[in-house]
Amino acid sequence: MRELFATLPDEPTPPLPPGYLETALARGRRSVRRRRLGTTALAALAVLLLASLATSVVPFQTAAPATTPSLPDTLAGYSTLTSTVAKAPPGRAIALYGYGNGELFNMFQSLVVGADRDTYRRVDAMEERDRPSALLAPDGTKVLLGDDRGATDDLLLVDLGTGERRSIPLGAPVGVRLLAWSPDGRYVAYSAAPLRNTGEFGTVNVVEAEVARTGTLRILDVETGRSTEVPTLQPAWTAAFAPDSRSVAVQVGQRAHLIDLSGAEQATVDIPAGRELAAEVGWSPDGQFLATVPWLAEGPFNGRSGGDTGHGTFLWKNGDLAFVPLTADGTPPPTAVKDVVQLLGWRTPQMVIVATIDAVGHAAIVEVHRDTGARRTLSRFDTGHSCELHTQTCQLFDLHLATGLLPDLAVRDAGRPQRGGPWPTLLTALAAIALLGTAWLLWRRIGHRRGRAAL
Length: 455
What we know:
Elements: H1 2-6, H2 20-54, E1 70-72, E2 74-75, E3 93-101, E4 107-114, E5 120-122, H3 124-128, E6 134-136, E7 142-145, E8 152-159, E9 165-181, E10 187-193, H4 207-214, E11 216-221, E12 227-230, E13 239-241, E14 247-252, E15 255-260, E16 265-270, E17 275-277, E18 289-294, E19 319-325, E20 337-340, E21 342-348, E22 351-357, E23 363-369, E24 375-381, E25 395-401, E26 410-412, H5 425-454
Parallel strand pairs: 1-26, 2-24
Antiparallel strand pairs: 3-4, 3-25, 4-5, 6-7, 7-8, 8-9, 9-10, 10-11, 11-12, 13-14, 14-15, 15-16, 17-18, 18-19, 19-20, 21-22, 22-23, 23-24
Helix pairs in contact: 2-5
């Protein structure tokens, strides 16, 4: 072998190609940078994954109420990323409403919007009962709901500050229509009746129509959970509490019965034909008038027809707001307020807050002077094509304001919607899968490059 190598020509080692050393060093540095970048990317993905998963278990802290309650000048559009009251309690709310569309698929949300910041939450307790009609407490801290699918043996009280729920037993299962919440927050008037079919009715609300025909008034003491039945008032149609919460006006047929909390009748007031007492908030703050609106459907049951309230439909039909005096002292009633879909509450005895719908279906919350008719728009709803996966316009229904907050209400510039932090479980799972998949692909790519470099 030595002899063989000795026969080889004694020539110097060929020189390296020009720039070879600089190129090798640059490639080495680039490989190090890529490895470092890959390690950093993997660490960042791990942090994002942990943060995504942590938001579903870390309790959400509610903010302390602001001194002055407020309403955003624009209410945010539909979003599937909106969290729930149970996962992220919002604190006191200024509004409760149903939102969505069912043109192609049933995609509806029952929402509360914050009275102190731009928080939006789905009331998951309502979704679990297929979005029944509900009431918002006058101070905006609670929601009370029944069940529109069939007879229920309890009402459910949801605390918006903690997300906790309290069951209020009703005794035997009955169909329920919630009518009004007293200004002091202590009492709720509702109508109840046994149902001929006590089974589930699916997503169709037949409870309201049935109870509107046969329901008997009950007055619930929210603190104790006890209800007082007033069997003489049947069928109870709509109701509104007096400003001092000691009396309630209940419409039966075309007459409003003014009763105390024990059910004793104090007086009666005739409601003009074709009209009904404005639901929940029809008694003026000065105690002088009852506010009335046109029937939405057939009107009160008269033994032959009627009983279809129309209260469960979308907000769509403009009417007017007319006033009936409670005393015979000669005080003339105010002029009717035109272009009103729903009376939502009162700021003062002369200033009402109403819902309106324009010619193209855009909804708004408007402040109207009862005597002069002067108007100011407080807030507008986003009714654009953001519902049903951005294929349909959004519809509004079952709208309520926190009536006890209205006298001090301010209007704030709408900020970015705060939908609750924690993502829905499905979206969290999808995000986790996407992050893990990206991390795996980066790991494979880095490992492949390392293998090529070793060769």
